Give the backbone structure.
Amino acid sequence: MRLIAASLVAALLLAPAAPAADRAALMAQHRGGVIRLLARTAAGSIDPQVNYTAQFWQVFALAYDGLVAFRKVAGPAGREIVPDLADAVPEPAEGGLLYTFRLRPGLRFSDGAPVRASDAAASFRRMFRVLSPTAGTLYGAILGADECLRAPAACRLVGVTADDAAGTVAIRLNQPDPEFAAKLALPHASVLPASAPARDVGAAPLPGTGPYVIAEYDPGARMRLVRNPYFREWSEAAQPDGYADEMLYEFGLSDEAQVTAVLNGDADWMFDTPPADRLGELGVRYAGQVHIDPAYAIWFLPMNTRLRPFDDMRVRRAVNMAIDRRAAVKLFGGPRLAEPLCQALPSGLPGYEPYCPYPHDPAAARRLVAESGAASARVTLVTDDSAVQRAIGAYVLGVLQDLGLDARTRALSANLQSTYIQNSGNAVQISLTSWYADYPSAANILVPNFGCAAIRPGSDASTNIPGICDPTIEAAFQRRDWAAADRAVTDLAPAAVLFAPRYVNVVSHRVGGFQYHDQYRWLIAQAWVR
Amino acid sequence: MTNTAGSSPRPGSARPGAFTRLAADRGATIALAALALIVLACALAPLYADRVSRTDPFRSNPNDTLLLGGRIIEVVQENTAGLGLGTTPLGPTWRGAYLLGADAQGRDVAARVLYGGRNSLLIAASATALCLALAAVAGLAAGFAGGATDTVLAWLLDLLWAFPITLLAISLSLVLLSQGVRLGPVLIESDSLALPILILGVIYVPYVARPLRAQVRALRGTEFVLAAMSLGAGPWRVLGRHVLPHVVPTLVGFVPVIMALALLSEAALSVLSVGVQAPAASWGTLIADGQALLYSRPLVAIAPGLAVVATVLALNVLADGLRDAMDPRG
């Protein structure tokens, strides 16, 4: 009998995901405990409308909700948009210009205050008032957004109206946006109390609606999440209750120390990628605790199409042909951690069709450079100072020199490099960077990186780093033909895409019910600790 | 008999027997031989890379292959066991190519240690020369001129001395590495070796200039200097003929000390990525490269680390020997 019971418990513990029917039993079995998380550093502000990091977006999914959410299950089903604080996902009216949501009844914030439609409307205004990093890029289609972007403090956002009596929120767009519902599921569109200050709250948590509430946050030491006493599960799909009673997120350990802590069971998960020289050991001795998951991201070398020598497409194509993507993958950690890629869209995204017109051919690449007359042109590759970027930068430097270019590298602090390379005033010719999609979408990779609208001369937030603005690409964007857009981008070679990375999640032996979500990464609340 | 302006007492270093004493010091002799060997090995780095390892130590090529034991193997191997995570560079072959193995980018560690040593030694030696030159000027001027000159220079030296040395070096590096530095018409670019030379040459000036200033002040009151001045010798002549020769042994004694300090500081700055900049390498940058492989290929970091230890040890033993040999009471 004891053996049978033990087997049953073991089977439950090892279950990769909990089917709905078993969830109540699992909850009864595993509810409680503390999940201990680690990261090298904190990720800054815990204002969900300000922070723009994958690290804290994962946390915000535990504490905040929007009108809609991605279904919180692993696999492709997790890309479905489901109603969250709203009772349904509305079909847009008036030719895709009007979305009308009705809030579920009885919702409360973690301070006990009721959630009203006016809170939702105020949250959209606040997004612009606090200069949310995606206010313009993702929510610029809301009527009145232009005025709000110009004068944030006086933002009225006429396109968003609320009726507290009816519990409805209407959002009017100035042009249809087929991905608008997905954008409403992001943390920047979280519903907060209307009383939330119109400034970045930094380390002071705002009341939320999720199953957990941030009880303590010290960016230099830890974050503690405890159960939200006012949370009642209203949708298992959008915001299921969590197993653990508490989550303790500690900051300050090196990657090496984090791995050791997780393997020893002193912590349950680490945010950072494990150091390269521990990967072999992890894959062999701790294979059961390692999960390799898609990242929907690209690492690439944007080439400034407006500066010599990359204003000549032959030079850009030559770089694409000279790069041995397998070498870059090796420097990143090997083929299980990254997939070689020479097109803009990584596999798994809508519109992805394998396409690579640039076979590895250094001799042909050298001929192209010679034909272009760019040989001996001085080129500076700008990387950041992380170990991986430096390693890949050193490899690319050799490739550029082999092409006959007078190449050199410049490593900038990782805090600065990303914005530095975006600013056209810095005249960066070629750089190494990465783009992780805000949500699993082809548009979210192609449009910001290669769309005309993403060029902002002289700005640190000009995400189209190559500065390419091409009618063929734009036409494909308009048709939402992402495969065609991807091919057009690849043919024009404004960048040399190197690979699509994957995430490595290492969990302790205490963790059960690990599920990976394309948007929220590890669904922490849906796992338990033994 | 009182010395005249033309004949001041001979300083200790120049008295017969100093070199003989140094040569008789077994420790100093071994240290000198070890230093000579290290310098020679580093000087021959291109020959080693070309004839022995037959690799380009600066070219990143993780897809390179090597014929070893009749088998062609990749210099950076993809792990295949278990989940197949990560890559592992080749370990020591204990023969010509990849004698000490490869780093994460497939480069020959032994060749890089030799090349890195060239830059480390060049930076340490140049920084030492710069430091001693600046310290000599500051020490002689402050000690000999006295008055306001002494006050201002002493204040400047104290100011420099007040900073923790490593923090000062890091701060200077961080500032200068972003844009380089312009000295009049000369622009030192951010990736130039001249930058760490300049930084290390400046930060140690107070350590030499302060004792030098005290020595010059003492010399200024000695009878032979006073005699020379009373006989009408100008300050430049007094400094050059009567003070400087007595100061030179002190400066010589500082050479190995400052060089050892500069070598360690360069390594520390490079480990923190604010010293020598890629694609140039130094022992410090090699240690930094090896940090990511401490668990699987520790030799990548240990080899340059041992080179730093051996060189600094040799310099310190030599410094002791030099001090003993030049000690007038010895």
Chain B touches chain A at residues 59-63, 76, 78-79, 81-88, 104-105, 178, 190-191, 273, 277-279, 292-297 (CB under 8 Å). The longest strand of chain B covers residues 65-68.
